[in-house]
Structures are given as structure tokens and as C-alpha cells.
Design goal:
single chain, 502 residues, alpha/beta, Nitrilase/N-carbamoyl-D-aminoacid amidohydrolase, 6-stranded mixed sheet, 16 helices, 14 strands, 44% helix, 14% strand
Length: 502
């Protein structure tokens, strides 16, 4: 396929527009760029030759993901020991896989509605939602930089309890399509969609989706800022435990605490190497403790084995312990997908916990009749549909994370946005405890009530009101995806010549 200079200019413009969309996400937060940059992309798609729609979408995706998930290089190279050249190839390859979804979406809409620009533009917002949904499960999924996350500090977040992240994404994409319509067809009445979306968001925002459950509890988080490279060094265990215990004491000495939360793998030890005396010793202050730990049940076998190890968490309450084991693992970070192809990569990585097992089944965590936790470890909270299914009747959401892997990049801030969306979708307060920050307290509307700075040793406490109730999203899940598929199908039927309709 020969590419003219005009086509190259269009591809470069799409690349820039994709990169511009990243500025709508954290840490930048210029949310208005989301509909604007997407609208410009839609315009270019409509004006592209049918053969080039795929390349246009691919270029936009490369700009979005090449810039937006550039932190992958930090994880793999800076902390994982991957050589420079391999780290760059990994980022470009990873961004390319994600960009492929946008390329296929653009091509599919161009082919389905060839020569019918208006119907293409009507279909694009719904196709975008389907693309995001597919990205969340293909090859175990990577639901990062979904469009709706740009709205965590804006008015369209109000749609989250109704239809989750995908409904928020759809609303942004509809706004983009309205802007694009006014540009392409010179019909500025399309812009009336924008105030209608704003009014709808305001009305939706008036609903209270959850109610208070019992009394408020006092929760503290400990951000120890332990360097990732020293965390797993032999001989540091006792020192790390002492640091966490001391920081927890700072919290509990100044006020009565119901729950203290430590980050993911705060204790770099195996659960099987501890006993009840150990847990009583580190919870002597009277507060329940939730902390990350490693779990290797086969260590109790004869002979002991490390064949089955979990990234886990323990809730220590009243001298008893309850266990949660991670369900959704990070590919290449916690397990090796398609091992027959990629197994050799392990030879270049120096990542601890890079070959773990995952857990299935219910894992309730509750204490004293007033703490009922819906837990997620690391990026488990990125998988909205999984999370809503697993939290059960939890009255408090908690995410523990080890964001030091990402260094001083976009990722920790993007992850906080995901936590905000989960809180709003389920109408539950959320506590987030990250080793290097930001740790945060969020209310049931996804608003950040308090948070720490990054890369500092800090404790934070806040009064949290447990909530109960059921949002529409909690009950019905990803109905927006099915709705989007139906709309695309109806548009396709409408676009067919009358003689071909059955």
C-alpha cells in the first residue's frame, strides 16, 4: 500500500491527537481534552480513504498508549533488569498491541458503513465502548486509559453508578461525535447534545446510591516508602517489620483506630513462616490490621515446596487471621503468559514474585461486625466487572498496592483514578494504601478526601463511613456493552439497502 505525503501527515496528526488525549488523564487532568481530541480523531477517520482507516486508528492508538503507558519501561528496565533495547522494544510492542484495537475498530466501522459518513459517526461512540470492553479481557485484559477515567473530576462521572466505566466512556464519545458532526456536516445544532449531557449528568448526580451502615470507623494507612530494590534483600525483614509497627504506633498512640492498612507485600515473608503470636505482636495496639504478605500453602507439605505461591493479604483481627489471595495477576510481572513463546524472557527479568498462582472462590474479610472489606491487590481494581462481582456485600473498599514498580511515572496517578471510578461505580468509600504513594481516602462519590505525597514516609488517618446499597452497575454490570452492540447492529440493518433487509 503506497502512502502519499498527505496520508503520512494525517497519520502523524492522529499520532499527536492520541498523545494529546493522555493529557486528559492523571496526573495532568485536563479532562476537556478527551472529547476534543477524540472528536478530531473521528473527523480524520471520516475523511480517511477506506484503505487507510486502519492505519489512522493504529496511529492514534500508538500516540495514546505509547505515551500513556510509557511507564512500562520503568517497571521492566529500571526495576526488572531488562536491557535498554529490550525495554524499548517491549514498550513499543505493548503499545502496538493496544493500538491494534483502535485500528481494528476504525477499519470495521469504515467497512460496515462504507460511504455512509453520518451513520459511521453515529456508530463510532458505541464501537469505542466495544473496543474498550474487548481490551479488558483479550489476553487476560489491560483496561488501562479507558476514556471514562478522564472524567473522575468532572461532571460525567455521575453516570458511573448507572453503567460503570463504559457508560462514562460512551458519554464522552457521544460528546466527541457531536463536536465532530458539527465540524464535518456544518450542522451546529449537534452541539445541543453537550448541554443535554450536562443536564443528564446533573440529574443523575442527585441520586444517593448507598446508605450509611453502622457507625463511622477510624482507618489509618501506613506508607513506609520502602525502596523496591531493598525490600527483598535477605536480612531486612525484621527491620521492615519494625518500621511498619513503629509507624502504626504513631497512628494508634494519637487516636483510637479501628483498622490500619499496610500496602501490598508490606511483609516480605511467607504466611507459613508466621504464627498467631507473631500476628498478636504486631497488632498489640488493638486495631485490626490488613497487610500484604506472601502465601505458599505447599510449604506445609512434606517435603516443603514453593510451587504454589500467592500474592496475598491478611486481615488480623482479635487474634485471628483471614486470608485473601490475588485473583487477577499481572502478565509478565506475576506470571508468564504463553510460556512456550515468552519463557525465555524470565532469563532477563529480575522481578520477585514473577511466577505466581491465582485464586478462585469467595474470600470475605470482616471484623468486629463493623468492618466488611471488599479487597483488591494492585491492579485488580482496574477490572471493574470482576471487582463488582467479588466485593459481595462489602461496606468498605480497600486497595493495597506496590506502586514503587512504576517509579516517578504516570502510572500511580492513573491508578488512583481507577480507584475513584470503582468507588463511584459501587457507591462505597475506598481506602488505598501504596508503599510509595499516593495513598488516599475516597468517599462513595469517588472524591479524594485526603492523600499522601509520593516517595515519602507518611501515615494518614481519616474517619470512614461504611456504606450499603446497590447501584445499577453493581446489579446489572456491563449492560452498556450489550446495548452498544445492539445499536451497531441496528445501524447496520438501517444502512443496508431495502432489498437486502429480511
Amino acid at each position: 500500500m503506497k502512502l502519499t505525503s498527505a496520508v503520512w501527515k494525517t497519520l502523524i496528526l492522529n499520532l499527536v491527537l492520541g498523545a494529546l488525549l493522555v493529557l486528559a488523564f492523571a496526573p495532568f487532568g485536563v479532562w476537556v481534552l478527551a472529547p476534543i481530541s477524540l472528536a478530531a480523531f473521528f473527523v480524520l477517520i471520516l475523511r480517511a480513504d477506506g484503505k487507510h482507516t486502519f492505519l489512522s486508528g493504529l496511529a492514534f492508538g500508538y500516540g495514546l498508549y505509547g505515551f500513556g503507558v510509557s511507564w512500562v519501561y520503568v517497571s521492566l528496565s529500571t526495576y526488572g533488569g531488562m536491557p535498554l533495547w529490550m525495554g524499548i522494544v517491549a514498550v513499543l510492542g505493548f503499545a502496538g498491541i493496544l493500538a491494534l484495537f483502535i485500528g481494528l475498530m476504525s477499519y470495521s466501522i469504515g467497512r460496515l458503513f462504507k460511504g455512509q459518513a453520518k451513520i459511521q459517526l453515529l456508530a463510532l461512540p458505541f464501537a469505542w465502548v466495544v473496543f474498550e470492553w474487548m481490551k479488558s479481557w483479550v489476553l487476560t485484559g489491560f483496561p488501562w486509559l479507558d476514556l471514562g477515567y478522564t472524567q473522575t473530576s468532572a461532571w460525567m462521572l455521575a453516570w458511573a453508578p448507572v453503567g460503570g466505566i463504559y457508560l462514562v466512556s460512551l458519554m464522552v464519545a457521544i460528546a466527541a461525535a457531536a463536536i465532530a458532526w458539527s465540524v464535518v456536516f456544518k450542522n451546529f445544532r449537534a452541539l445541543l447534545v453537550l448541554p443535554l449531557l450536562a443536564i443528564g449528568s446533573w440529574v443523575t448526580d442527585q441520586f444517593e446510591w448507598s446508605q450509611d451502615h453502622g457507625d463511622a470507623i477510624q482507618v489509618g494507612v501506613v506508607q513506609a516508602n520502602v525502596p523496591i530494590n531493598s525490600k527483598w534483600v535477605a536480612g531486612t525483614r525484621d527491620q521492615l517489620i519494625s518500621r511498619y509497627v513503629s509507624l502504626s504506633s504513631d497512628l494508634t498512640d494519637s487516636q483510637t483506630m479501628d483498622l490500619v492498612v499496610w500496602p501490598e507485600t508490606a511483609l516480605p515473608v511467607y504466611m507459613q513462616s508466621t504464627d498467631q503470636a507473631f500476628w498478636r505482636s504486631i497488632t498489640a495496639n488493638g486495631a485490626a490490621l490488613l497487610t500484604g504478605v506472601l502465601d505458599a500453602p505447599s510449604l506445609n507439605a512434606s517435603p516443603p515446596s514453593y510451587d504454589e505461591t500467592y500474592n496475598a493479604a491478611v486481615l488480623a483481627c482479635n487474634g485471628e487471621t483471614q486470608m485473601y489471595r490475588k485473583r487477577h495477576l499481572v502478565p509478565f510481572g506475576e506470571y508468564m503468559p504463553l510460556r512456550f513463546i515468552f519463557d525465555w524472557v524470565l532469563d532477563y527479568l529480575e522481578l520477585p514474585m514473577s511466577d505466581l498462582a491465582y485464586w478462585q472462590g469467595d474470600q470475605p474479610l470482616a471484623c468486629n461486625g463493623k468492618i466488611n472489606i471488599g479487597l483488591s491487590i494492585c491492579y485488580e481494581d482496574a477490572f471493574a466487572n470482576e471487582y463488582r462481582q467479588h466485593v459481595g456485600d462489602a461496606t468498605l473498599l480497600v486497595n493495597i498496592s506496590e506502586d514503587a514498580w512504576f517509579g516517578d511515572s504516570f502510572a500511580p496517578h492513573q491508578r488512583l483514578q481507577m480507584a475513584q471510578m470503582r468507588a463511584r461505580e459501587l457507591a462505597r468509600p475506598m481506602v488505598r494504601s501504596a508503599n510509595s504513594g499516593p495513598s488516599a481516602f475516597l468517599d462513595e462519590r469517588g472524591k479524594v478526601l485526603a492523600k499522601t505525597e509520593q516517595f515519602v514516609v507518611q501515615t494518614l488517618s481519616h474517619q470512614v463511613q461504611p456504606k450499603t446499597g446497590e447501584t445499577l452497575y453493581k446489579r446489572f454490570g456491563n449492560w452498556v456493552v450489550l446495548f452498544s452492540l445492539i445499536v451497531i447492529g441496528l445501524l447496520f440493518w438501517f444502512a443496508m439497502p431495502n432489498k437486502n433487509r429480511r
